[in-house]
């Protein structure tokens, strides 16, 4: 019966193996038996134990639903919980990717100029889409940029992201921790300006791109002061008019008393880089945020001549204030539970229709197949540390896919179907891009190729944000353009 198909949709996924753990829960690789596609299923447990974590999860689930774009990681489904009123865990199905940009940079010291250009183009294209929706990511770094062997990148981890509304009080909007220090804009290091702009993300992308060029972090500060020292060592001491705009008295005093430093020519700092790339990088890393380009302006830079196409660089409508009304009032656990449940229903259209019409039944337990999932996840968590392959319950038939994640096992019908132009650019940039095998070795090729290490399982356990950098994905079809 179709009615029960909707509720029992968890049966369509066959769990393969654990690919990562964190304080929030566990991520497993799985096969979607309807499509043959590999996916990552993230179990987030006890989400209402701390209301701040629950709000962060709600915020990120909303943003990933609203920001549908080829360069942003996609939530495919969220499993329907067995009970609307009593659920504690949620299971989120993401597209599966192979690695992240941090691992790609770490594994390759020979990225070509084509790789570098294509990487930056995709990151800026994602930023343009986010920023036109008035969304600031606020925690961009290589680990939060997912990567595939075909050079496809996707931004993830929106746990610290915020939507900027014109009437949002700055003191509320920017009070929490923002951005990993190494990729943090100077105005975040010292609370320089009264209201921050999307330029904070532009700075982070500049730092990431510099790391792509050199293979190492550009500003690995050990403290906020050390961070400012490293930034001014390269960019020089900011001019007095910039310093006078610094809001934080201590930071302003520190900059005023700093010895005068001349800027280091970028051609000296990055001697092997494309001169056009350095011209754009210098714009991205302007000390004063008003001197940085927007993502749209950066995409129009001569560096991207022959690659950029405006019709593929989509904008997004600003997000409605009503979507984040919960941020503006005091909420309790049951409020957040109801809002998360409402987000889950976005992936179950018939049930959402019933919910909106007030005809949804609430007095029974849904046959959602979550019980089976819970058993499989628990089994893998308990046995994952043992040697040898671990097969979860109900997956002992030889005909089922092996419990090992290799990109080469993805069925042909699950491969991305990019537009011919982008496909051509990808092929040019990744003609020698390769994925290491389970032992860490890669097949021999005629030239030293870039590699995407497989099976990355590291998690930021102190960051309960929803879309972990380990959730890895297939590049989707580009929007019709």
TrEMBL record:
Keywords: ATP-binding, Kinase, Nucleotide-binding, Phosphoprotein, Serine/threonine-protein kinase, Transferase. Residues 13-304 form the Protein kinase domain. Residues 401-434 have a biased composition (Polar residues). It catalyses: L-seryl-[protein] + ATP = O-phospho-L-seryl-[protein] + ADP + H(+); L-threonyl-[protein] + ATP = O-phospho-L-threonyl-[protein] + ADP + H(+). GO terms for molecular function: ATP binding; MAP kinase activity; protein serine kinase activity. Its EC number is 2.7.11.24. The keyword DNA damage does not apply. The keyword Acetylation does not apply. Pfam families: Pkinase. SUPFAM superfamilies: Protein kinase-like (PK-like). ATP binds at residue 43. Residues 385-461 are annotated as: Disordered. PANTHER family: MITOGEN-ACTIVATED PROTEIN KINASE (PTHR24055). Belongs to the protein kinase superfamily. CMGC Ser/Thr protein kinase family. MAP kinase subfamily. This is mitogen-activated protein kinase. It comes from Malus baccata.
């Amino acid at each position: 019966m179709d009615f029960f198909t909707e509720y029992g949709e968890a049966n369509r996924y066959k769990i393969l193996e654990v690919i990562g753990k964190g304080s929030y829960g566990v991520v497993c690789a799985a096969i979607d038996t309807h499509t043959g596609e590999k996916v990552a299923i993230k179990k987030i447990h006890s989400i209402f134990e701390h209301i701040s974590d629950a709000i962060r999860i709600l915020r990120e689930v909303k943003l990933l639903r609203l920001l549908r774009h080829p360069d942003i990681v996609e939530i495919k489904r969220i499993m329907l919980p067995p009970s609307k009123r009593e659920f504690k865990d949620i299971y989120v199905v993401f597209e599966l990717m192979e690695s992240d940009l941090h691992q790609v940079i770490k594994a390759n010291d020979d990225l070509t100029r084509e790789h570098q250009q294509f990487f930056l183009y995709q990151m800026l294209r994602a930023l343009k889409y986010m920023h036109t929706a008035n969304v600031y990511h606020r925690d961009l770094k290589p680990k939060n940029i997912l990567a595939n062997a075909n050079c496809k990148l996707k931004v993830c981890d929106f746990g610290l992201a915020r939507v900027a509304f014109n009437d949002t009080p700055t003191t509320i909007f920017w009070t929490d921790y923002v951005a990993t220090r190494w990729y943090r804009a100077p105005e975040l290091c010292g609370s320089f300006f009264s209201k921050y702009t999307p330029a904070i993300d532009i700075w982070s992308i500049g730092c990431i791109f510099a790391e792509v060029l050199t293979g190492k972090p550009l500003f690995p500060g050990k403290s906020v002061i050390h961070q400012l020292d490293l930034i001014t060592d390269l960019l020089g001491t900011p001019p007095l008019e910039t310093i006078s705009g610094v809001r934080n008295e201590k930071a302003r005093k520190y900059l005023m008393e700093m010895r005068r430093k001349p800027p280091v020519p970028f051609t000296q700092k990055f001697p092997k880089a494309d001169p056009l790339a350095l011209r754009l990088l210098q714009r991205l890393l302007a000390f004063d945020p008003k001197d940085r380009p927007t993502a749209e302006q950066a995409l129009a830079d001569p560096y991207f001549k022959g690659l950029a196409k405006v019709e593929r660089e989509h904008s997004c409508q600003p997000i409605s204030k009503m979507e984040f009304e919960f941020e503006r009032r005091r909420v309790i656990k049951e409020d957040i539970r109801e809002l998360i449940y409402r987000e889950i229903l976005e992936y179950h259209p018939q049930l959402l229709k019933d919910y909106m019409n007030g005809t949804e039944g609430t007095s029974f337990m849904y046959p959602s197949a979550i019980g089976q999932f819970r058993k499989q996840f628990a089994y893998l968590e308990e046995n994952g540390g043992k040697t040898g392959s671990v097969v979860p319950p109900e997956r002992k038939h030889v005909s089922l896919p092996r419990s090992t994640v290799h990109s080469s096992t993805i069925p042909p019908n699950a491969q991305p179907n990019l537009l011919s132009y982008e496909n051509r650019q990808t092929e040019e940039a990744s003609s020698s891009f390769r994925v290491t095998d389970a032992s860490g070795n890669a097949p021999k090729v005629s030239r030293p190729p870039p590699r995407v290490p497989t099976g990355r399982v590291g998690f930021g356990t102190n960051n309960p944000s929803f879309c972990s950098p380990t959730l890895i994905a297939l590049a989707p079809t580009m929007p019709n353009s």
